[in-house]
Amino acid sequence: MSVATLEVAGKDNYYVEEAIKVLRTNIQFSGNDVKVIMFTSCGENEGKTTVALHVAKSFSELGKKVLFIDADMRKSMVAARNARTRMTKGLSEVLTKQENISDCLVKIENSTLMMLLAGTVPPNPVELLNGKSFDSLIAATRSNFDYVIIDTPPLGIIVDAAVVANKCDGCVLVIGDKRNKIKREKEVIAMIRKTDCKLLGAVRNYSRSSTDRGYYKKYKK
Ligand SMILES: Nc1ncnc2c1ncn2[C@@H]1O[C@H](COP(=O)(O)OP(=O)(O)OP(=O)(O)O)[C@@H](O)[C@H]1O
Ligand SMILES: [Mg+2]
What we know:
34% of the residues lie in helices and 21% in strands. The protein is of the alpha/beta class. Bound molecules: adenosine-5'-triphosphate and magnesium ion.
């Protein structure tokens, strides 16, 4: 199994860590049955991946067994930015049955956090996410992990996240500092509500990526 270190903006920043603990606690209070949780947003670069990685890391710091799945198979940056590893295989190989999940997992050093990276860009991400293989993957991970955190592409741009939502217990909407039109946010919320997934709430992520001085604030639904 491959081992990697985790790099994520805001790591070791006291204010970020505190805000993430509040978010983690709010997720825990949303119910014992909420263990497969996805993160999405209306648009690009709002901080989905950053917030999802922080939450995954934060649960692992409680000693929970956590799996982070990178379901942004179209243009994932996780392997390049956050978890540098020699592992090139990931979700797309597992869903197309070219690989077993156990051969694709990456372990984050000194932690109980594991990752399934996006893998090779497939020609048909929505079909793969809609297929039976993804259902079986989620079912298998449910019994092997305490929490499964799924990072997805922006729901306001492509439909992949709505497909993933149907298999998740909860969804967190990340809202970045570039203001979306409120109408667009409402449309995305309506899309999530049409799925079988509970909308847990929204995270306001103000990001200043050039300096890594970011902070998070959790709003109630
Ligand atoms: N709170 C933050 N503080 C500092 N930098 C941040 C913060 N949130 C995000 N960033 C930075 O902003 C950039 C975009 O963040 P991220 O990749 O998490 O967004 P995303 O919504 O997942 O983007 P995409 O739509 O491409 O998947 C990254 O360089 C990240 O490091
Ligand atoms: Mg992302």
